[in-house]
């Protein structure tokens, strides 16, 4: 209990420091607004919002303010996706796909205002639940992570890439792993971290320092989105918004167990490396449908269904930051973009991170969720107007934003070539249903994996048992092996037989 | 064939080609990796590191793994009929319209990034791109997309050919040509805007979006911006430092 109280005191101090700084509000209001607008526009995503802002604010303003801008946009964008889900039946972001299942039927029934009020409140509560979990668990894990050495770090990085590849694949799991390996391969370019041996530079001096994170992020997340979105799409019929957008406290009280459960699920899913808000929303929706007495109403305008997905996708934000801050492994694609911002500011997330940064992140998340809640209630009609802008109008501007953001990070014109190359590759990978998140996580974690894997072997004089002789490493080896073996056809058949017997 | 099974068939045909490309790439990079010393070779009389710290160790694992996974993917694609589809009907599942859409976007992006951004004033280059992309894809008219791509290719191609080396990037003939292309494309935009209200905003958006961005980046964040010596930006920068800044600096 003392531990929790001391954490809350530390958080209170960081929160107060933020609240009394007037510059905070400048970045916070602008970034949350921008985030909601990005989320509300179908074709733009939360990952894209954080990525583009990383290009703009990543290393141009002090990290404290950059974090306000990036986290504000992250929270806003995940929430903003609910607008088109409810009013157009088109998810603004993948995270709010499950929200459309019940949100749109509610809007069609003339309860759009109520649905938006509920999602605003649920998103706020979800973010606070995830943030509270971040505040507590990050410290517990940080204590454990002090005993993490090179073998565990290497195995954790590998586990993050494999798990992300497994869970993010829409088609074959093997495609997620291939994407992760391509990301790892990209991270091998440049001088190697131990011996400074040049690898795959092809005589181009720009490649000596390896692939830069921001152009890769821009290429992987922005360019495919722009290519895919530049097509004529008939705008759907916007459901008429009836009623005021107000929080329905009665419904909130009634569905408090659902909100709590969804918050916990969202945080848990977010804490899994590389698994984003979309998975959190669907998992929570699925669980809600199974356990709820009103499960049969899900998909037909159920308030419980709406709350299940919308609470979970925002709770996922806090969860996704846990592995990022403790282990340096991003918990979701937007968290990967956030890691890019840390990296270009020379902050290495992981066991050695400055505890002040964690407290500040928590304080920013709470303040951002407040801002999002207030904006959601009072400025919703502005975002509804934004919904009407066709994507063929705003995507070319996003392309220009991406180009100048990527150029200004430091590498100049070569960064733009890299961005474009990665962008075309990522577009074709999307087309062939390869997930992009494992690729980005591979690029980010590649040098960590390379360095820690070889350092482990160096310290043990090439003895491979170093990866099983420590309990933590042995558990991680077992997890990595289990993950790979579980995808073998023999294992899959055995699982299916077991499931059949249990049923 | 149902829609879903058709989609799976197209996907497996794509997987077939992708796995072949991945196998070729894995083999190429395994060959490149063989040039990195693995077993403590001597280099210029200095003994290299042991195998377990060699810079080749992890890349060997990665490209070896990629090769194995690509072979597995190839096997899956062949077993699911991907090879038959791939060889019989090109098999990437694109129709003519989609191929045209992608090609024109790729042309625009290539000439914008490789030709215009380094050499031509950022406001002019981006104004042309924004106008071309909105005009080309709003409403889904194939001929408009072709015209837009041709305009960007003309401006970008000229910049690449006429002022290829970095020493010539400050020359202005490509800036003027880009301006002409931009204005030339704005005329049909304005004509089409009579029927399509959304296009009315294009000239304003195409000028002010890059103008605000480049000024914010250069004077707000004090960052490097592309083509500092560009036709318009050069004037903006001059007047910012010579005319405007002294107003509050003094």
3D architecture notes:
Chain B: The chain crosses the membrane at residues 51-78, 99-116, 122-138, 145-164, 176-194, 201-221. Chain B: Keywords: Membrane, Transmembrane, Transmembrane helix. Chain B: It comes from Pseudoruegeria aquimaris. The complex is a heterodimer of chains A (503) and B (250). With 503 residues, chain A is mainly alpha-helical. Chain A has one domain. Helices cover 73% and strands 1% of the residues of chain A. Chain A contains 21 helices and 2 strands. Chain A has helices at residues 2-19, 22-40, 46-57, 63-80, 82-87, 97-145, 150-168, 173-187, 213-229, 249-254, 256-271, 277-291, 303-327, 333-344, 355-378, 380-386, 391-407, 413-431, 437-459, 471-485, 489-502; strands at residues 190-191, 198-199. A two-stranded antiparallel sheet of chain A has the order 1-2. In chain A, a hairpin with a 6-residue loop joins strand 1 (190-191) and strand 2. Chain A is globular. The two termini of chain A are 42 Å apart. The mean pLDDT of chain A is 86. Chain B folds into 2 domains: 3-88; 96-249, no CATH class. A two-stranded antiparallel ribbon of chain B has the order 1-2. The mean pLDDT of chain B is 87. In chain B, helix 5 (122-137) packs parallel to helix 7 and helix 6 runs antiparallel to helix 7 (173-192). The termini of chain B are far apart. Chain B is mainly α and 250 residues long. Chains A and B meet through helix 8, helix 9, helix 17, helix 18 and helix 19 of A and helix 1, helix 2, helix 4, helix 5 and helix 8 of B.
């Amino acid at each position: 209990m003392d531990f929790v109280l001391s954490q809350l005191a530390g958080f209170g101090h960081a929160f107060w420091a933020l609240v009394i700084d007037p510059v905070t509000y400048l970045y916070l209001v602008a970034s949350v607004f921008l985030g909601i607008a990005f989320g509300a526009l179908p074709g733009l995503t939360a990952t894209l919002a954080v990525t583009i802002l990383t290009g703009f604010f990543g290393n141009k303003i002090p990290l404290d303010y950059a974090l306000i801008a990036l986290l504000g946009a992250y929270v806003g964008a995940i929430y903003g996706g609910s607008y088109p889900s409810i009013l157009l039946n088109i998810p603004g972001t993948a995270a709010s796909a499950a929200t459309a299942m019940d949100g749109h039927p509610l809007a069609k029934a003339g309860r759009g205002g109520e649905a938006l009020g509920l999602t605003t409140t649920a998103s706020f509560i979800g973010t606070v639940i995830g943030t509270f979990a971040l505040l507590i668990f990050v410290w517990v894990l940080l204590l454990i992570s002090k005993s993490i050495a090179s073998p565990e770090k290497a195995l954790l990085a590998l586990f993050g890439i494999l798990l992300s590849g497994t869970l993010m694949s829409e088609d074959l799991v093997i495609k997620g792993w291939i994407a992760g390996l391509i990301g790892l391969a990209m991270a091998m370019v440049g001088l190697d971290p131990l011996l400074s041996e040049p690898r795959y530079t092809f005589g181009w001096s720009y490649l000596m320092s390896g692939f830069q994170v921001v152009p890769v992020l821009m290429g992987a997340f922005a360019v495919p989105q722009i290519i895919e979105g530049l097509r004529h799409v008939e705008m759907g019929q916007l459901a008429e918004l009836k009623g005021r957008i107000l929080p329905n406290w009665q419904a909130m009280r009634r569905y408090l167990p659902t909100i709590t459960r969804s918050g916990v699920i969202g945080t848990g899913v977010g804490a899994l490396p590389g698994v984003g808000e979309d998975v959190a929303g669907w998992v929570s929706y699925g669980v809600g449908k199974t356990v709820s007495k009103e499960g049969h109403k899900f998909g037909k305008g159920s308030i419980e269904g709406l709350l299940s997905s919308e609470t979970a996708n925002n709770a996922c934000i806090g969860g996704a930051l846990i592995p990022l801050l403790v282990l340096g492994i991003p918990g979701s694609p937007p968290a990967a973009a956030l890691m890019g911002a840390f990296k270009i500011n020379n902050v290495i997330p992981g066991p050695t991170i400055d505890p002040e940064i964690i407290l500040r992140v928590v304080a920013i998340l709470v303040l951002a969720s407040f801002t999002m809640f207030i904006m959601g209630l009072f400025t919703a009609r502005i975002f509804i107007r934004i919904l009407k802008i066709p994507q063929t109008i705003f995507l070319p501007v996003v392309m220009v934003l991406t180009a100048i953001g990527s150029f200004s990070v430091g590498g100049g014109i070569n960064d733009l070539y890299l961005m474009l190359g990665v962008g075309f590759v990522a577009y074709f990978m999307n087309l062939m249903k390869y997930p992009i998140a494992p690729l980005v996580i591979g690029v980010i974690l590649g040098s960590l994996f390379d360095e820690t894997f070889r350092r482990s072997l160096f310290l043990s004089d090439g003895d491979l048992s170093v990866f099983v002789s420590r309990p933590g490493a042995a558990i991680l080896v077992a997890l990595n092996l289990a993950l790979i073996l579980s995808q073998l056809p023999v294992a899959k058949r055995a699982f299916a037989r077991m499931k059949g017997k249990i049923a | 064939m149902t829609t879903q099974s058709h989609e799976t068939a197209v996907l497996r045909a794509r997987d077939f080609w992708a796995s072949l490309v991945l196998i070729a790439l894995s083999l190429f990079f395994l060959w490149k990796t063989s040039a990195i010393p693995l077993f403590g070779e001597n280099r210029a009389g200095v003994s290299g590191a042991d195998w377990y710290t060699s810079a080749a160790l992890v890349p060997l694992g990665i490209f070896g793994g990629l090769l194995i996974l690509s072979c597995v993917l190839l096997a899956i694609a062949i077993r699911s009929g991907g090879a038959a589809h791939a060889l019989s009907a090109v098999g990437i599942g694109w129709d003519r319209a989609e191929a045209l859409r992608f090609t024109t976007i790729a042309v625009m992006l290539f000439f914008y990034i490789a030709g215009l951004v380094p050499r031509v004033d950022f406001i002019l280059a981006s104004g042309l791109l924004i106008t071309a992309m909105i005009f080309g894809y709003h409403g889904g008219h194939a001929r408009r997309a072709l015209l837009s791509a041709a305009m960007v290719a003309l401006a970008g191609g000229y910049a690449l050919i006429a002022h290829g080396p970095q020493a010539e990037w400050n020359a202005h003939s490509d800036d003027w040509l880009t301006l002409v292309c931009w204005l030339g494309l704005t005329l049909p935009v304005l004509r089409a805007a009579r029927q399509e209200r959304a296009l009315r905003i294009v000239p304003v958006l195409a000028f002010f979006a890059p103008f605000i961005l480049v000024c914010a980046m250069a004077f707000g964040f004090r960052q490097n911006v592309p083509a500092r010596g560009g036709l318009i930006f050069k004037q903006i920068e001059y007047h910012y430092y010579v005319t405007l800044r002294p107003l509050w600096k003094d």
